[in-house]
């Protein structure tokens, strides 16, 4: 039986419509639930991981930050058998420098609202990985020692800064929906607790990071992407952006 049979827990009329781009880790579709367009994401996250994400969405919504909200099953659960259903978000990707500055403002509000938020279960921050070998979706033990040293040197430059929830991939235009009056970050699958600068490496330095901070953050972000996607061509490309230790 297809794992998408879990969609039936959102109602007998719940149906998949069209497959969407959701990255390698998840199967993402537009769905119709209770006659309303929504987005279903089916992946391998466990219940603790999904509970963290859905609780975060509710917290941000309560604080006034636009986010996709979990749509409950018919018996009130926010996820079932690895499947989450989220409200559909209108809008298009950021296109102008002004759009990206609005994205930066939204990210800073996210960071402000999530200081002291607990770490996502099973995940590690870049500061944790200065000493830990595994966590999140990475295994530093599988990387060459020189590559690990380069990544850790990049992360060490940001160590000790106050941590908060980071979205994880806001520079991807597909993860942002912009309208005239709202900026909404979608696809929170990579969100976790880390230093906020990792979120602020945006096109055109839209966050206005100065004093060498943009280069430091860009190095740390590239190191994270290299480690989390190791091995492969993409990981090699991102590692090449990280200065030798």
TrEMBL record:
One of its GO terms (molecular function) is transferase activity. It comes from the Bacteria. Keywords: Transferase. SUPFAM superfamilies: Protein kinase-like (PK-like) (SSF56112). Residues 17-202 form the Aminoglycoside phosphotransferase domain. This is Phosphotransferase family enzyme. Pfam families: APH. The keyword Oxidoreductase does not apply.
């Amino acid at each position: 039986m297809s794992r998408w049979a879990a969609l039936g827990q959102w109602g007998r009329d719940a149906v998949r419509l069209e497959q969407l781009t959701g990255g390698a880790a998840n199967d993402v579709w537009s769905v119709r639930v209770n006659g309303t367009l929504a987005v279903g994401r089916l992946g391998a996250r466990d219940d603790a991981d999904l509970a963290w994400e859905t609780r975060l969405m509710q917290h941000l919504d309560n604080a006034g930050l636009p986010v996709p909200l979990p749509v409950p099953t018919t018996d009130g659960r926010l996820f079932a058998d690895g499947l989450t259903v989220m409200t559909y978000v209108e809008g298009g990707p950021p296109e102008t420098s002004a759009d990206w500055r609005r994205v930066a403002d939204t990210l800073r509000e996210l960071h402000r609202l999530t200081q002291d938020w607990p770490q996502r279960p099973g995940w590690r921050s870049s500061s944790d990985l200065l000493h830990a070998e595994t966590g999140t979706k990475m295994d530093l033990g599988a990387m060459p020692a020189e590559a690990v040293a380069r990544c850790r040197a990049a992360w060490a430059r940001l160590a000790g800064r106050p941590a908060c929830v980071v979205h994880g991939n806001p520079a991807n235009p597909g993860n942002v929906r912009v309208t005239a009056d709202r900026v909404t970050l979608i696809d929170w699958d990579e969100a976790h607790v880390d230093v906020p600068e990792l979120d602020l490496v945006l096109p055109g330095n839209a966050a206005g990071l100065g004093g060498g901070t943009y280069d430091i953050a860009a190095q740390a972000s590239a190191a994270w992407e290299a480690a989390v996607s190791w091995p492969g061509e993409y990981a090699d490309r991102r590692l090449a952006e990280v200065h030798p230790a």
